[in-house]
């Protein structure tokens, strides 16, 4: 393995017509990261192939392979960044792993826990890295908080209260439970390390005109006496938040010996001018740090954190939330947990 | 609010304070500061407490016999500051005596008794109000004013957290005996449940609550309460009331209300001035209106004109009790509980 890993950008789709994390998030991060080099692009459907062709021209890369198998057979490719449409995503990730490639998978890794579990099984079997792009846990405030909790600064964590509220942008047609909940759930799991055993949830539509949910309240009972509550959704546009930016992103971790308040709108230089105020900061972003983890896990030959198995658990929680919101009663998760 | 002249033909109403404990001092101070009412006397089952409070108040009359005090013609109204389990019988006695009542929260600790009290005052034609004091604090009013002014459109989601060591100092107090307090949901939970329901302008339909005994497993009440309320109009709320947080020097009040057109926040750190001294860091709270005085004014307004719109209605007081009862039941069952169930299928 050379020092720089070759990356194939596969697919440019997301939840909803205008979501393209491949070009918006992963391509810029791979392009500036020392450990990676984008060597190929490909699509797995007509729209994806059109985008791939245009992008190959723009980036000066060879013409995209005609089909998935050819693209995955390229020996210059070490890592596949998978952003194919969510319905085909699990299968594409499995194909990449079977072709011997490491994977960065856009979120959600799969639309159901069962599909995510299929991916996790192949990742475990092949020993390759399969990193679900839960990049918010790499936020510098959250990274530091994980260290503090691990160092026992608040004692035994017994409760987390989380708010993840995006303002503006295009509402996800799949609903914001499917679209956003993975981020704060992943952060709560990363902060506490405790699996969820019971889920009570409520889904509402407050802001969008479509029928999809735009606010989810999740009441989670974890192992080890931990409870957490997550409010996640998307409001209408707010003047001081860039479209699709986070208006509120915070976690309060209560422990037997202290309380830690994490405000992920910091660190920030606050700019106030004639127009709405804005924030800026210097340094690596969450996606850059996500790629650091990808690089480190591949180099060490270890599963990434988060792993595909973590994505399975999150998908189970999201599935249970949907069931609970429909029935109005709490839902128990299976005791053994999926691997 | 009606303006009242200090010089009036009729003397200001005489007010009796029943229960001369911690919170009675706040009501006494508010009474001393207003020209609109007069402290007529103090009643406590403990003669020592009654007499000490009467002396401290400048030598007003005191008694250990509520019936005797209520019979006095110069007593027009009563503020009750006794432990929660005594609220029902005392309220019914005050109603029977034909006097107005400001009852410390909760109005009572069961829904049927809360209803019975409201019916008794309806029948007597006198005023009953429960002292949900947070409605009368500057912060509670600022949030309500903003919502009333349409600043965030229709409010759809509220978070309200109160975490603090100040919530009770004495771990042996009656408050920690569920038979006497009704449990933490009825004792302190009702403050938050009432406040968010008022802010959201929506009728609660169900409660999902989780309670914890954080400080010691021997506790008989939940020193941490998390209460999720769903409303008929689609709004929802998450309230936390905690004496279980550590360290107990924590003093947190956190407000978030999201509306259809905006978001309102009273951030924990925006509350006071951070003060760092040789003995540590703390928050210096801003000067504020005396919530007990504002509340007293609202009650006196209702007495002066019972037909006018009330700051806190009897139905609000019953609803707060129902929410508290639903919370305790939800914790016990680990399931959501509907207001219909605890209200016995009848609306307040
Ligand atoms: N609004 C608020 O913010 C707030 C704050 C604290 C307490 N409270 C409420 O105030 C009430 C009193 O609480 P507290 O903390 O002052 O209690 P406390 O224990 O300090 O005082 C209660 C007093 O009532 C007396 N008493 C007991 N039974 C009596 C009876 N049957 N008749 C007459 N007197 C009797 C006791 O001797 C004692 O002096 C409670 O209902 C509580 O929920 C309200």
TrEMBL record, chain A:
<protein>
    <recommendedName>
        <fullName>Gfo/Idh/MocA family oxidoreductase</fullName>
    </recommendedName>
</protein>
<dbReference type="GO" id="GO:0000166">
    <property type="term" value="F:nucleotide binding"/>
</dbReference>
<dbReference type="Pfam" id="PF01408">
    <property type="entry name" value="GFO_IDH_MocA"/>
</dbReference>
<dbReference type="InterPro" id="IPR036291">
    <property type="entry name" value="NAD(P)-bd_dom_sf"/>
</dbReference>
<dbReference type="InterPro" id="IPR000683">
    <property type="entry name" value="Gfo/Idh/MocA-like_OxRdtase_N"/>
</dbReference>
<dbReference type="InterPro" id="IPR051450">
    <property type="entry name" value="Gfo/Idh/MocA_Oxidoreductases"/>
</dbReference>
<dbReference type="InterPro" id="IPR055170">
    <property type="entry name" value="GFO_IDH_MocA-like_dom"/>
</dbReference>
<feature type="domain" description="Gfo/Idh/MocA-like oxidoreductase N-terminal">
    <location>
        <begin position="23"/>
        <end position="132"/>
    </location>
</feature>
<feature type="domain" description="GFO/IDH/MocA-like oxidoreductase">
    <location>
        <begin position="144"/>
        <end position="260"/>
    </location>
</feature>
<dbReference type="Pfam" id="PF22725">
    <property type="entry name" value="GFO_IDH_MocA_C3"/>
</dbReference>
UniProtKB/TrEMBL annotation, chain B:
<dbReference type="Pfam" id="PF22725">
    <property type="entry name" value="GFO_IDH_MocA_C3"/>
</dbReference>
<feature type="domain" description="GFO/IDH/MocA-like oxidoreductase">
    <location>
        <begin position="142"/>
        <end position="264"/>
    </location>
</feature>
<feature type="domain" description="Gfo/Idh/MocA-like oxidoreductase N-terminal">
    <location>
        <begin position="15"/>
        <end position="132"/>
    </location>
</feature>
<dbReference type="InterPro" id="IPR000683">
    <property type="entry name" value="Gfo/Idh/MocA-like_OxRdtase_N"/>
</dbReference>
<dbReference type="GO" id="GO:0000166">
    <property type="term" value="F:nucleotide binding"/>
</dbReference>
<dbReference type="InterPro" id="IPR055170">
    <property type="entry name" value="GFO_IDH_MocA-like_dom"/>
</dbReference>
<dbReference type="Pfam" id="PF01408">
    <property type="entry name" value="GFO_IDH_MocA"/>
</dbReference>
<dbReference type="InterPro" id="IPR051450">
    <property type="entry name" value="Gfo/Idh/MocA_Oxidoreductases"/>
</dbReference>
<dbReference type="InterPro" id="IPR036291">
    <property type="entry name" value="NAD(P)-bd_dom_sf"/>
</dbReference>
<protein>
    <recommendedName>
        <fullName>Gfo/Idh/MocA family oxidoreductase</fullName>
    </recommendedName>
</protein>
